[in-house]
Amino acid sequence: MRVEYINPFVETSYQILKEVLGGAAVTRGDLYLKSTAMPVMGVAAFVGLAGDVEGRVLFDMSYETALNVASAMNGEKLTAFDDLAKATISELANLITAQAVTKLHELGFKFDLTPPALFAGEKMEIAAMGGNAKSVEALIVPLITDCGKIEVNVAIRERV
């Protein structure tokens, strides 16, 4: 996975979280690679990528973090992971990926996004793309905020 694909997602995630969380502290944890199926923390916003590259970006967080983020973004305390909270987390994923893809387009990469899909539940896992589990590794970027931990999970490869 080329670093040119990853940096815009990491930088944009950091910047937008600082913005939408009202200047809250956002710190980046240690990056790590994962090539096998991995569990999801509870709420995951999934955005697919297609074009010069293929893959996906996943924003993974616990229910508590999702509620805290949605509350901060809406300026009111949300107590249930309802339609407003779900729409807010989907919009967060949309904001981040749209800006990251704009940066990538400026670098000459051409690809499109799928609308965010939101998954919520216990004991879910995300598996590697395609039949070959080693074909794409996911880079996991933990972002620690006052609202909780959000993992930006990026798995992108050049189209063959």
- Characterize the largest beta sheet: strand count, sense, and whether it forms a barrel: 8 strands, antiparallel
Form type? globular
Q: Which runs of at least 5 residues are low in confidence (pLDDT < 50)?
A: none
What does the radius of gyration come to?
Answer: 15 Å
Separation of the first and last Cα atoms:
13 Å
* Mean of residue pLDDT values: 88
Structural class: alpha+beta
Discrete helix count: 3
Query: Could you spell the SSE succession in H and E letters?
Result: HEEEEEHHEEEEE
State which percent range the strand residues make up. 25-35%
Helix content: 25-40%
**DSSP E strands, number:** 10
Report on this model:
With 160 residues, this protein is α+β, with helices and mostly antiparallel strands. Helix content is 34%, strand content 34%. Helix 1 packs across helix 3. It is globular, with a radius of gyration of 15 Å. The two termini are 13 Å apart. The mean pLDDT is 88.
What distinguishing features does this structure have?
alpha+beta, 34% helix, 160 residues, two-stranded antiparallel ribbon, eight-stranded antiparallel beta sheet
Brief digest:
By secondary structure, this protein is α+β, with helices and mostly antiparallel strands. It has helices at residues 3-20, 63-74, 83-106, and strands at 26-28, 32-34, 38-39, 43-51, 53-61, 111-113, 117-120, 125-126, 138-145, 148-158.
